[in-house]
């Protein structure tokens, strides 16, 4: 055996031998660098639409259908993460946001009393115009015939009732918000409409780890290239380097993904303590994630817009109309019964409902103020940060990885193709080992 080893050693073509790990190292770096680009860019699909491709893609194997653009009838590319934005939104809710808090908890975190005070402050100057608009539209003759002191008295009474009315509105929202708000649909719709936000979550959340994965691509590639060089020097077949390059490329990407996410909790492997790069920084990453969620995803402005314009918008408006309706009765004060008789129950109820409907948008409008929404974001951020830090490490890892888990094969296949190309390139430059 020693004699065989000696003969092998003396017969090594050292330039050929030593350049193999260097090649595999560079290819490993390129694999992880370009794989990172494939994950995030471009944000929107770029390519060409091909007539009939959509129909053809629908009968291809499911894995092939997952290639961005095929099911839309295009040949090109869209980053895996932005292409799966809606999917990530769904998983973000299932794996994390739903565990961070219920809609009522998020709403309570926003301090409804503070919200009510803000609404009253903004809305009070608008009450005279609100009353005048509704009355001029519903009962123009009656409103014109009323003496100005009587008009002023109606406006003053509505203003005096405003804090109580608004308090009832915010209480009603808090009581029914679990039925009115679907966080999953809200987040999915937002992620689908803004795929760049999903990319930002990954980038801000783990750019340091992603850069480290690229650097380790060279390390993994170089180390894997050593046994490749040994096998190639022993057998000296032209097809070995391309075939082993496929293996190196696949394994390099797989190791890079493993390095980032696994293991979720510290473990010892062969006496060495290992811990995934993402879960290792869970407390710090939780703060970054919470800031993005509070600033761009679950904001007061977006909550209000979803409540009024989303799938349950009609129900929300009816709830608010019901809560606001009695304000007209109270505004009429002791004269309510006489006014009701003089105008007739139908006309009086019509005015009351019209005021309530008109007041719904005006009551909620102050909450869509970006400046006020930004003030409230700190409370959401604190809640999300605290709950994210409390997530079990496995759930924390799944929150980020499961959005791309089914598409990881594309990255591995990309690595295999580049490894194959690297093997042929080495053959082209240095020939077959002899």
TrEMBL record:
Keywords: Membrane, Transmembrane, Transmembrane helix. The chain crosses the membrane at residues 12-40, 210-231, 237-261, 409-432. It comes from the Bacteria. PANTHER family: UPF0754 MEMBRANE PROTEIN YHEB (PTHR35791). This is DUF445 domain-containing protein. It comes from Nocardioides acrostichi.
